[in-house]
Amino acid sequence: MKKIEKIRHSLAHILAYAVQELYPQTKFGIGPAIENGFYYDFDLPKKIEQEDLPKIERKMKDLIKEGIKFKKKIVSKKEAEEIFKDQPYKLELIREIESENVSIYESGKFVDLCAGPHVRSTKEIDPDAFKLIKIAGAYWKGNEKNPMLTRIYGIAFGTKEELEEYLKIQEEAEKRDHRILGQKLELFLFDEEVGAGLPIWMPKGAILRKIIQDFLFEELKKEGYEWVVTPHIGNLNLWKTSGHWELYRENMYSPIKIDEEEYMLKPMNCPFHVKVYKSKIRSYKDLPIKYAEFGTVYRYERSGTLHGLTRVRGFTQDDAHIWCTPEQLAKEVEKLVKHALKILRMFGFKEYNIYLATRPEKFAGTEKMWKKAMAVLKYVLRKRKLKYQIDPGGGVFYGPKIDIKIKDCLGREWQCTTIQVDFNLPERFDLTYVDKKGKKRRPIMIHRALLGSIERFIGVLLENTGGALPLWLSPDQIWIIPVGSRHKKYANFVNQQLTTHNLRTRIKDENETVSKKIREGEIQKIPYMLVVGDKEMKSKSVRVRERGKGDIGEVKLTRFIERVKMEIERKK
Ligand SMILES: [Zn+2]
Ligand SMILES: [Zn+2]
């Protein structure tokens, strides 16, 4: 265990100790280390509020400064039950432990049931490098039939500087939260009555999706892909053949009964694409075959893990499958890696981390197949001189994969591209092609998504740009604002000129002041606003307000059109 994790977990104990001192009747739940910090669950004798946190924090700092030692003791379960006789949650945990003895930790006057490890003494903890950040309700053991406990979250780092850096990034991240931006920019919404994790795309969001999809459609055509469209549900038998029912079931929803048969909402598009491959006899001359689809899939996510667009229950993948000969595999994977990086760059993502994910616990196929696939992926990454990290056990059940996680402007990592080699589905569905000698052979299948999920990708785009999408992606590119009612006709003329060049415009001729419309446009992060009045009308020009720059002066309409078209071309 890393030192910082020990510190975080030890702080959870110190938090509990402080709470015990301040609220003596408290019953204690559990307190683990988590990413960037720790929490502890309490059954408190009185309700506490956010305002109480500084007091608890001060108490913790005092305790830390005392240099409290963490002492481990092994006791029998009987002894433990005696020690924790007033602690019902701890008693429940003790009774669940299978071994005869349990380990407990003493730190000062606080005793906890815990396997450790911890720091030896609080002297190893910097009292200025942690902070309690929030209170939330949490059911005991995450089960809503159990009592609701109070969870206090803290964050902790090795030094005060790291803590401050983290808080700064958090503050910036809050401003860029795509869930808030999505509402402000009228892109998407969530509705309780519709259900958790099921985004609804509003007109502007739908346009944004279409822009992204049209762009990919053209890009993939150049790479030799063909497009297919497949159903959202499929017979359970299909998922049994594919292995999903056996190995991927926890991510799938319950079967839907239709007549006497059971159907599944699709968690993946693969088996459908396999059927297209299988619809004809394939020759080595046809390979590689590439089928792409914007396939909407449904996967079970626990409600607690849902988060805006980045963690949803229904999402659309820019999915594709490639079938090739074993000899073609390395070349195809290499093309994919190159293409993926190119596409991500076009969306403004120039930094990324690459992961090579190895065999998970539940897997299909033989070890030999896995080894072979791994060797190819490694070979390609080395050949392209790409640095990568191993993600142990992170592969999908049918094969290892290369994941490309993009880094946004705050240094956060987001999963996007995935390239997965699969020897298994061709086997299960008995896919073949005829080789040069007229012999039947098995193709290799590659699963790949470049952006991953369109939903998550848009979420990341929004957070990366703070909602100021580049011109080519902006749903509304240009607003035209007539100064008075006598300028409406000219505004219509400007609009007509812009739309003939396929620019996405909106005339803002509501009965409101120009400055109010400009403010609204700024909130909605509109790239260009054109104000037109007497002067502009006379000289066939527009007064341009550029996002982030404000008024940049009067420009001839024809010049303005050239300028924005060039900007769109450059994808800036
Ligand atoms: Zn502990
Ligand atoms: Zn697939």
Helix content: 25-40%
Strand order across the biggest sheet? 11-15-16-23-20-19-17-18
Overall 3D geometry? globular
Spans where pLDDT lies below 50 across 5 or more residues:
none
Q: Please report the total strand number as a whole number.
A: 28
The number of helical elements comes to: 18
N→C terminal distance: 44 Å
| Backbone CA Rg | 29 Å
Biggest sheet details: 8 strands, mixed
The hetero compounds bound to this protein are:
zinc ion
Rounded mean pLDDT is 94
Strand content: 25-35%
Q: Which structural class is indicated by helix and strand composition? A: alpha+beta
Annotation keywords:
8-stranded mixed beta sheet, 36% helix, 18 helices, binds zinc ion, alpha+beta, 572 residues
Describe the structure.
The longest helix has 20 residues, at about 5-20. Strands 11-15-16-23-20-19-17-18 form an eight-stranded mixed sheet. Strands 1, 2, 3, 7 and 8 form a five-stranded antiparallel sheet that branches. Strands 25-24-26-27-28 form a five-stranded mixed sheet, with helices on both faces. About 35% of the residues lie in helices and about 25% in strands. The protein is of the alpha+beta class and about 575 residues long. Helix 6 crosses helix 14 (about 455-465) and helix 11 (about 330-345) crosses helix 12. The two termini are about 45 Å apart. Bound molecules: zinc ion (2 copies). One zinc ion binds next to helix 1.
